[in-house]
Design brief:
Layout: E1 8-12, H1 25-33, E2 37-43, H2 47-55, E3 60-64, H3 73-86, E4 90-94, H4 97-110, E5 114-118, E6 120-124, E7 127-134, E8 139-144, E9 151-154, E10 170-173, E11 206-210, H5 221-230, E12 233-236, H6 238-242, E13 263-267, H7 273-276, E14 284-289, E15 302-305, H8 308-323
Parallel strand pairs: 1-2, 1-4, 2-3, 3-10, 4-9, 5-9, 11-12, 11-13, 13-14, 14-15
Antiparallel strand pairs: 6-7, 7-8
Helix pairs in contact: 3-4, 5-8
């Protein structure tokens, strides 16, 4: 059995259906590098995903076969095998839908503490600490395991740390014994939506969100134009989603997607606590609203009080002019 680095931090790499490492990989391994030595597990073991893990800073990359027809259980089996081999100080997993499922199952199997939706990690004299933004962002709190290695899911986009790339990582293929636990199976699905060239909302570095103030689905195009000018993902408040301006997948907030981009632009969003819970950890927040007393200005770093139908086109025009 190979030896692993001291203070190993086991990182599960999310892999796309095409076999590539997900966009969350660099930040997840970067977070691990701040508390120890990242050891990445790449389910499926595609060369592109292995290369991405090494480029993100993993000096050791473990690969494991993953049954593409079964959901979750093969990933947990592989992560459990990696955990037993590596004996890490912590396990970091992306706070994606799959990541949350896998993390919970591993924690139960190995009787480990589980910390979810962390916005950062650190190490103190007693071990690994996870940092959280809770109750709609009203409090910043820490969590730590009483004993054993914690399993921590990290909010996508919340950590902006990048580790140095590793030119020649140690790559090891894990032998994984199937647990035999009942698993759901994935069948063929019919793709009904065309792939967008815009960034994915979860994990995006820039997000432009629109709210009820847009007034109609037709006027929501202003948000799209501003997002395209910035190279940003598109989000929305629950009010805009409920009004049918944009599908639910774009909803930002307590009952939608939580984002922590470098730039968040809120257009025509009043800023109810449920919405702020999903975006107020953004590094820079810009709000555009005609109501100067709107709650969104309480968390905004830069606010514009005025008619968004006049302001947004002017901003788009200025951004496009800078590209020429």
């Amino acid at each position: 059995m190979m030896s692993y680095p001291d203070n190993s931090i086991l990182v599960l790499v999310d892999v796309t259906p095409a076999g590539d490492a997900a966009s969350s990989t660099a930040a997840l391994i970067g977070a691990a590098s701040t508390i120890g030595s990242p050891v990445a597990l790449v389910p499926g073991g595609s060369q592109s995903a292995v290369d991405a893990a090494a480029a993100a800073g993993a000096s050791v990359v473990l690969t494991a076969d993953a049954d593409a027809g079964s959901l979750t259980v093969p990933l947990v089996d592989a992560l459990q095998a990696a955990f037993k081999n590596v004996q890490p100080d912590a396990v970091l997993v992306s706070n994606s839908i799959t990541g949350r499922d896998v993390a919970g199952r591993l924690a139960v199997r190995e009787k480990l503490a589980l910390s979810v939706d962390a916005i950062g990690v650190s190490r103190d004299d007693e071990g690994i600490v996870a940092h959280h933004s809770v109750y709609g962002g009203a409090y910043l709190v820490d969590s730590a395991a009483t004993y054993g290695a914690p399993v921590i899911t990290v909010r996508q986009g919340a950590v902006d740390v990048r580790a140095e790339a590793v030119a020649s990582p140690t790559v090891e293929a894990l032998e994984v014994t199937a647990s035999g636990v009942a698993a759901a199976t994935a069948g063929a699905i019919e793709v009904v939506e065309a792939e967008s060239s815009r960034p994915e909302l979860r994990g995006a570095t820039k997000v432009v969100s629109g709210g009820r103030g847009l007034g109609s689905k037709e006027q929501f195009v202003l948000v799209e134009q501003l997002a395209d000018a910035l190279g940003a993902a598109i989000g929305a408040s629950r009010a805009a989603v409920d009004a049918g301006y944009i599908p639910y997948a774009h909803q930002v907030g307590q009952t939608g997607v939580s984002v922590s981009p470098q730039l968040y632009v809120a257009v025509g969003i009043s800023g109810a606590i449920q919405h702020r819970a999903g975006m107020q950890t953004a590094k820079n927040i810009v709000a555009i609203n005609k109501d100067g007393e709107a709650p969104i200005f309480d968390v905004a770093d830069f606010g514009i009080v005025g008619d968004l139908f006049k302001i947004v086109p002017q901003v788009v025009e200025a951004l496009e002019a800078r590209k020429k």
